[in-house]
Amino acid sequence: MIKKTYLLFVVLFFSLSNVFSQENIVYQKGIIFPVRVSIVDEEDRKITRNTEIEANGRYYSFPNVKGNFIIKVKVGDEIRVSHPDFETVYYTIKSSEDIKVVVKDYLDTRKSSSKLKTTSKRIQTDFYLVHLDSATFYKNKNIDKSLSFIEKALKNKESKKRNAATYKLLADIYLHWKQYDLAVYNYKLSYQIYKDVTTKNLLAEALFLLENYTESEQVYQELKDEKLSNYERIKVFEGLGDVFFATKKNDASVKNYQNALKIANKGLITSKITDLNSKIANVFASKGETNKAETLFKSSLNLAEKESTSRALEEEEKVADFYNSNRRFDDEIQLRKKSLIKAKEQQSNKKI
C-alpha cells in the first residue's frame, strides 16, 4: 500500500516542459488578441477537465470542441495555468503564439483504468475530477448540490494537491454565498495542505470580508514577499488599500491604491485602472477633498463606459452617491436618469 501511494504521488506531481510557438505575430502594446492554449500529456492527449487559466483576472475553464482554451490577452500579460493534478505554471505573452503546456508523467486515471484492476476504490478515485467539475458547475447556482459533490470528492484518500484544490473550491463556494467564516476556515486548511499564493490571496480577501482587518493585513503583507504575477500583486496592494480605508488610515490606503495603480497602468489592465481610480476617489471624498474626488470619479466613469454597460452602471451609482453626499442633487438626478435609460436599453438587448 505504501509503495502504491508513493507511485501515485510521483505520477501526479510532475515537472513541466512548457510553451512553444507555432505562429508569431507581434501586436502593438495594448492591443487585445486571442491566443489558443492547449494542455496535453506526453502522448499529446488533451487535459481539459478542471483546468483553469487566469489572465488579468479573467478565468477560462471551458475549452472549445477541440479541447483548446481561447483566451484574450495583450503582449506582456501573464497567464496562470492551474489544475488539481499538476503544479501551477506561469507564462508571459510575447506574441500571438499558440501555447502548448506539456505535462510530464501525467496519469489520466479515466483513460488508463482499463489497464488496471477495477475496484470500487479505484472507480471512486477515477471520478474525483468529475465530482470537482460538478461542484464548480453548481458553485454559483445551488450550494447544496455543490457541497454534495465536494463531499464525494473528499471521500477517498487523494494527493495533497488534490485535497488542497478541493478545500479551496469549498472555500470559493462559501465565499460566493457570503459565509465568510467558513470560507476563511477552508482557505486556511487548503493553504496548510499545499502552499499556493492564489489561495493565500483569497484568504486575505475573505478575512477582509469577515472584517478581521488585522489578520487580513498580515496575510497581505506576507504576500508582498511572494513571487506574484502583475495581477496578483495589484490585488495585494488593492487589498491593503481596502484594509486601511476600512480602518480609517486614509494616507496608507491611498499609497497602496496608487502602488496598485502604477502596476495596472504599466500593464494596461483597464479594469483595475477603473477600480483603483474609483477607490482613490472614495478616499478623497471621505476626507472632504471633493475636487480631487470628482476628478478621479470622472476618470473612472469614462473608463467604465469603455468596458461595458454593467461596469458603467456600477460606476454611475457610485458617482451619483458622491453627488448626493455633497448635496449636488441636480447632478445626481441627471446621472440617475441617464443610468435608468442605459439599464432599460441593456435589458431590452438581453431580450432580443
Automatic annotation (TrEMBL):
InterPro entries: TPR-like_helical_dom_sf, TPR_rpt. It comes from the Bacteria. Residues 1-21 form the signal peptide. SMART domains: TPR (SM00028). Keywords: Signal. This is Tetratricopeptide repeat protein.
